Amino acid sequence: MAKRIKQESGNYEPEITRYDEVILTLFKRHHQSGVKRLIFEKDEIEDVCQELNIKVRNIPDILYTYRVRRDLPNEISATGHWAIESAGKSAYAFILLENPPRFEIQFQDYEPINIYNAIPEIVDGYLRRDEQSLLTKLIYNRLIDIFCELTCFHIQNHYRSFVNGIGEVELDAVYVGVNKSGNLFVIPIEAKSRADNDRIGRIQISQMAQLVKQDFPDSIYRILAVKELPDKTIGVVEFNDKNNPDEIKILSVSRYKLIRRGE
Predict the structure, then answer these.
(1) What pairs with residue 97 in β-bridges?
(2) 163 shares its domain with 33
(3) I need a labelling partner for 208 at 20 to 30 A (CA). Which of 26, 54, 83, 248 fits?
(4) What 3-state class would DSSP assign to 262?
């Protein structure tokens, strides 16, 4: 079984060398010079684990690790900007991008905007350092309204949908907003915790855009990601709504600091 190492964030991560062996072997099975999309089945991961005599209790965690938390092994990255994306039911693909698969956003370069903390103290005391607690902070402090300059309404967290050609995609949250002219905006949210390795990826943002276009056609979209930072400020980023990950651009960044009166 892969060992687990406790990180500074308090979360446990799989020992990356074991996962590296598996994902690198899988990549080499499919890699061909000049081919930019390498499709594989989820069952192949279990086959590779058996071939390498590596026991992993949670096979899907290997994919999740490289899609969300970790960069691909150096031997793969040396051949280009590879990422992993969903490619239909029980299928995935290594995809070669023109740009790095994750955004390196220098949030510290943005002066924090003070916002009075509207979270009741009885709630605040129970919040953790994860994505769900971050989403709670957004709701109580109406940070989506403030950032978008819209009146926004929270629809739900964990919005899941099967997107054609991709498979199941999940939004951490989805809002609807209205402006002074009565126009409606659909606002999907990708939430990232305070952990340094929890970064915003191009594939996730592009799949968010494709989901809302499919499920909420003929709408105006505001594609957002939020991240809690080590100094407890909250970064909010808006992207364009392109489907192609390489065409995703950052439109706006703000950083908010929640304060209490008298601080």
Answers:
(1) 81
(2) no
(3) 26
(4) coil
